[in-house]
Design brief:
With about 210 residues, this protein is an alpha+beta fold. The chain has one domain: Cysteine proteinases (Cathepsin B, Chain A). The chain is built from seven helices and nine strands. The strands form two sheets. Strands 1, 4, 5, 6, 7, 8 and 9 form a seven-stranded antiparallel beta sheet that branches. A two-stranded antiparallel sheet has the order 2-3. The longest helix has 12 residues.
Length: about 210
C-alpha cells in the first residue's frame, strides 16, 4: 500500500499447513492434509495427528506470525496447539469435532506465556482495526474462509482466522493462513467493502508487550 496514511507492518508469513505451496490442493480436497510431504516439521507425532489439526489451526498460524514479528522464538505448530488445548483455547468435543479458537482463554494464555499484549475483542469494527494497526499491533480477524478468493456471495461470516498486518483508506492487508500462494497468502489487500461480507466483527488484538 502506498497511500501516505497507510500502515503495513513487515510480518513473516506462516501457513497452517507446512507446505504453503500446496494449500490449494488441501483446501479443495485434491490432497489430504495427512499427505503433506513436510508434515514432520509441524512437530506432530504422526501423520494422523497432523492431518486432524492442520485444517483447524489457523489461529496458531496467526500466533506464530505474531511471535516471529515481535521477536519471540516460534514453536512448531502442533506442540503449540497442544499447549493451547491445555490452556483452554481449544476444546476437543469429540473424535472429529473441536470448539475453538476460544478468544478469552487464548488471550490470557498469550499474556501469561509470552508477556505480549493480547485482548479478545467480541466487537471489532473497521475503525478499531485501523487504530490498532496504527499503534503497531496486529489483529486476528474472524472471517469466512472464502475471503481467499473474495467470493461474491460467502455463505456466512466468520469461522476462519486471518491476521491484519496493514490498513489504509483502500482496505485491510491480510496474512491468510489458508490463502493461495501468489494471490492471497501474504499482504493480500481486501477493500473495506469486501471485508464486510466476510468479517464477523470480532477478533483478538496482539501487541509487543502488556500495557
Amino acid at each position: 500500500m502506498t497511500d501516505a496514511s497507510s500502515t503495513t507492518h513487515r510480518v513473516p508469513y506462516y501457513a497452517q499447513w507446512e507446505s504453503a505451496d500446496l494449500v490449494p490442493e488441501f483446501v479443495t480436497g485434491a490432497r489430504a492434509s495427512a499427505d503433506d510431504p513436510l508434515w514432520q516439521k509441524s512437530g506432530a507425532g504422526s501423520r494422523e495427528e497432523y492431518g486432524f489439526w492442520a485444517s483447524r489451526i489457523c489461529g496458531m498460524a496467526c500466533l506464530r506470525m505474531a511471535l516471529d514479528h515481535f521477536g519471540h522464538p516460534v514453536p512448531p505448530s502442533i506442540p503449540l496447539l497442544r499447549d493451547a488445548l491445555e490452556a483452554g483455547a481449544y476444546v476437543r468435543t469429540g473424535e472429529t469435532t473441536v470448539k475453538g479458537l476460544i478468544y478469552a482463554p487464548f488471550a490470557d494464555w498469550v499474556v501469561r506465556r509470552w508477556g505480549l499484549y493480547a485482548r479478545a475483542r467480541p466487537e471489532l469494527g473497521a475503525g478499531d482495526i485501523e487504530a490498532e494497526v496504527a499503534r503497531g499491533r496486529l489483529v486476528m480477524l474472524s472471517v469466512h474462509h472464502s475471503i481467499r478468493t473474495l467470493d461474491p456471495e460467502p455463505p456466512l461470516r466468520g469461522g476462519h482466522l486471518v491476521l491484519a498486518v496493514g490498513c489504509g483508506p483502500k482496505g485491510v492487508v491480510l496474512h491468510n493462513p489458508s490463502g493461495f500462494p501468489g494471490h492471497s497468502q501474504q499482504y493480500h489487500q481486501v477493500p473495506w467493502a469486501d471485508l464486510e461480507r466476510f468479517f464477523a466483527d470480532r477478533g483478538v488484538v496482539l501487541g509487543s508487550r502488556v500495557r
